Task: inverse folding
């Protein structure tokens, strides 16, 4: 749309113009593309990304004197994506902090559980329970609580991720994917950290003698 049509029909002036390249566009052989980022997230093949960067440099040299600003849309998209990823990283940090606090809470609860059940543990030892059986019972208990909470959080996170996908990305043709490596790391890593946090109180439970059943009231 030329300036004349804009002035005649809309009483305005041309403020921006978009230039697109075909998927077969390539840069010249003498163009230095060492500083060009060609991430898949830009949505364009590598050759188009480099060709658009060269075109932007040429237009900037020729039109900058006339006050024209040249920008590449894929660069703007990458900037927005970087900001979104940074915000999501902050959320992940808060969630990691919550996970650590939850693991510490399970450790504190286990300490109290061992302290309050000394007489019960002593009775079990008097009935013939071995130390390994005491350890197994506590490990099963804390593992059930920890894994149940972690799996519950993972299911809610997957549902939230699916809702965001349907709301923003499904119509864009983006495939629904899940970070399985991160999910498995959270599940198994959280479980291992719980076992580490409860190792000391569980080990103290194995040291409760059978005579504790008589001493504790």
Result:
């Amino acid at each position: 749309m030329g300036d004349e049509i804009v002035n005649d029909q809309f009483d305005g002036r041309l403020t921006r113009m978009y230039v697109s390249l075909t998927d077969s566009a390539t840069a010249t052989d003498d163009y230095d593309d060492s500083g060009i980022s060609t991430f898949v997230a830009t949505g364009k093949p590598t050759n188009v990304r480099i060709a658009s960067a060269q075109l932007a440099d040429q237009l900037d040299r020729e039109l900058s004197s006339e006050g024209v600003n040249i920008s590449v849309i894929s660069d703007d998209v990458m900037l927005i994506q970087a900001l979104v990823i940074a915000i999501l990283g902050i959320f992940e940090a808060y969630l990691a902090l919550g996970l650590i606090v939850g693991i510490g809470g399970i450790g504190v609860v286990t300490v109290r559980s061992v302290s309050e059940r000394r007489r019960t543990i002593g009775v079990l030892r008097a009935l013939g329970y071995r130390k390994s059986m005491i350890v197994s019972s506590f490990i099963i208990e804390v593992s059930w609580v920890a894994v149940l909470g972690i799996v519950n959080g993972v299911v809610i996170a997957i549902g939230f991720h699916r809702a965001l996908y349907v709301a923003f990305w499904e119509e864009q043709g983006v495939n629904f994917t899940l970070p399985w490596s991160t999910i498995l790391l959270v599940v198994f890593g959280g479980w291992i950290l719980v076992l580490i946090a409860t190792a000391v109180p569980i080990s103290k439970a194995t040291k409760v003698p059978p005579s504790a059943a008589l001493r504790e009231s």
User: Anything to note?
Assistant: The CA atoms of residues 83 and 104 lie 32 Å apart. The chain has two domains: 3-71, 74-215. The mean pLDDT is 79.
